[in-house]
Write the structure tokens for this entry.
Amino acid sequence: MTKQQVCRAIREDIINGAFAPGQRLTEDTIAESYGVSRVPVREALRTLEAEGFAFSRPYAGTFVAELTEAEAADLLEIRALLEPLCASRAALRRTPEQLGRLKELTALGQDAVRTGRLDELTRLNSRFHEVLAEASGSTLLTQLITQLGWKIAWVYAVELPRRAGDSWAEHEHICAALEAKDAALAQRLVTEHIAHATAAYRLRERRSTPAGSGS
């Protein structure tokens, strides 16, 4: 595995709760778990620290960061401003290939929901929103959405089983608006999609409570 692959694997495990907030990330244990040397693990942990998924303490090691409510609120507000703009532009600028990729990702997500493969949805959902940003034709918007994507996934991860079916149905409606080249409808649907997700989210530390255990 490359440094990038190790970084992605650790990041996904943090998002999905395999590594809990405050848990120490030891190079030896992670290297053994992923079947790699300590070098790519060390580099991956530095990247994750820069992204805010981990933090280090002198003479103590590297630990999983905790997503605060203030940070979650900031991320959701920023997303609510950026992604409707992406959708509006994408409806007018998307290529047939990008539309086809969005439809393919939607079909994969819906199949994963039907068959209970919920562990695949974080990656598919992040990729859907990245392609939507790419379809806007704006390099800057694409970079911003990609940078936000994994943190947004962290905010929503605890509600994934609860929202999965509705979320992917909303993706299908967004694709239809893009196919129709209806910028206003695409913008409205993405605004509503984000609003629904924002209303449903709970922070990771609430996962263990009865209210967060339903599906």
In short: Residues 156 and 197 are 7 Å apart (CA to CA). Residues 69-93 form the longest helix (25 residues). Confidence is low (pLDDT under 50) at residues 207-215. The beta strands are 54-57, 61-64.
